[in-house]
Structures are given as structure tokens and as C-alpha cells.
Amino acid sequence: MASAVEEKETGRIEAFSDGVFAIAITLLILELKVPHLEGGGEGGSLARALAAQWPSYVAFVTSFFTILIMWANHHAMFRLVRRIDTPFLYANGFLLLLVTFVPYPTAVLAEYLRKPGAPTAGAFYAGTFVVAGAAYNLLWRAATRGRGLLKPGVAEETILGFARRYRVGLPAYLLAAAAAFVSVYITVAICMGLWVFWILTARNA
User: Fold this and answer.
1) Which residues have a Cβ under 8 Å from the Cβ of 93 and sit 6 or more positions away?
2) What one-character-per-residue DSSP string does 44-103 give?
């Protein structure tokens, strides 16, 4: 009976979290604006206006895949969790706070990518994911402390594997934030490279 109650509570938290991820990833589309041209956009003016919005497309795609990968890692973690406690609940809430925040630095990056404020915008964008990386580490520590929240039979190597992957995010995103003051495009490239890392490592989770 107790086990069924624990699983129900864990399912409720995961369902709530999934809803937050879904809303955050949907809000990203608000950054894409319809061009308003005089005269209805004769000739190639509409095409040029759409092409000129490429920073918004880059920011949208980058953040879409980032949130998608964050959700996939969150889902993978919850596959190993059988119950929750208060520290885990609040650590999960802290992570969701950052997930909902992602559309804002995305909008800032899109707005300033080709302007003098690009280095600050890039550092702000990557810095958001530095904090998100810290949130994942905090949540995993809450889940694995004493192994009390994990399902029976979770291998020690699995626990260490998750911990190793989560530790990569902090220095990598710090590097991306610092790189913004050299070139914001390096920042974007590092963030995209991290997609590949998270996707490939998640396959072995």
C-alpha cells in the first residue's frame, strides 16, 4: 500500500514537471515575429525580412533542443526514482524555475546577437544554463542521498554515470559564457555541441 502511494506521489510530480516543460518549450515560439511591411511586401522584401530574423531562428532552435534535452534527462532521472521527499521536491522546483526562465535569455540573445550588447547577451544566455546545470546536480544529489529515493536494484555504476554527465554541464556552460566575450557565435556553437553530448550520453542512460 505504501509503495502504491509513493509511486502515485512521484507520478504527480513528474506529470506536473512535464507540464512545465511543455509550457516553457511552447513559449519559445513567441520570440518569432511576423514581419510587417508597407505595401504588403512587394517583390523580395518579405523574403529579405524573414531572412533578417535568422538570429531569432537560431535562438529558438537552440533553446527548443536545450529544453527538450533537459526534459529527456529529467525523464531519465525519474525512471530511477520510486518516491520523493521534501528536499527532492524543492530541488525539482528550483530546476523547473530555470526551465520556465529559458525563454527570456533566448529573447535577449535573439535581440542582441548582431548588436554591441551581444557578448553580454551570450554570457547571460549561457549563464542561465550554468545555473540549470547546478540545479541538475542538486536534484541528483537529493535523489541519491542514502539511496532512499531510488528504486531497488539501481546499479552504482548507473548512479555514478548520471553524476559524471551532470558534472560536465557546469564547466562547459561556464566556458560558453566566457567565450561570449570573444565571439557570441562560439557560445552558440558550444551550446549546440552540448546537445550532441547530452543526446549521445542519454542513449546509454
Assistant:
1) none
2) THHHHHHHHTHHHHHHHHHHHHHHHHHHHHHHHHHTTB----HHHHHHHHHHHHHHHHTH
**Cell triple for residue 119?**
557578448
Phi, psi of 114 (to 5 degrees): -110, 20
Q: Identify the sign of the CA torsion 94, 98, 99, 100.
A: positive
| CB-based contact 158:80 (threshold 8 Å) | yes
Q: What is the pTM of this model?
A: 0.86
Closest CA to 108 of 134, 93, 128: 128
| Domain ranges (residues) in the chain | 2-202
At residue 81, the 3 state secondary structure works out as: strand
Q: What is the pLDDT of residues 36-86, one digit of tens each?
A: 777 666 656 888 888 888 888 887 888 888 899 889 999 989 999 988 899
152: number of Cβ within 10 Å: 6
Rounded Cα–Cα distance for residues 191 and 65 (Å) = 10
Alpha carbon distance 197, 191 (integer Å): 10
